[in-house]
Amino acid sequence: LxxxxxxxDIYIEGYSLHELACDASSGSVAIRDIDADIxxxxxxxxxxTVEGITGGALVANxxxxxxxxxxxxxxxxxxxxxxxxxRLNRVQGxxxxxxxxxxxxxxxxxxxxxxNAETTSGDIQMSFTAMGPDYKLHTSSGSVKLSFPxxxxxxxxxxxxxxxxxxxxxxxxx
Length: 174
What we know:
- It is built from no helices and eleven strands.
- By secondary structure, the chain is mainly β.
């Protein structure tokens, strides 16, 4: 199913299908309770809201808008914004998140094998309910705050040009 609108909003809820693509050139996209092999949402001047998405992949792009939502369990998420934030909670799946002039905040991440997040002029905040093997986070002109389960075991490599590192976990600097 492909929905395309040039000036207005798209709202779709409660379907199970192979593919869902929603494109709004001047409006918002809201997708709720969808099970699909691939779900994509693209807007050039509006927000993307995704709630209750299950299946293979979720791809969301917002130019001059934010991506928000939660209760997402997919194989992989690809999230891109320009001049907007990414704010999700209760997420399962590999994550690729990029924003320019925006914040990336993803809470209650479980089942992510890889997480790649990058922002320019924005902060990154993430909390994990289970550990995965590979996380890469980068920000220019922003801070990074991560929360892990209390029994987490991990190694970390970091560098900063004008910042500091703090951990509630015991660590050794090398």
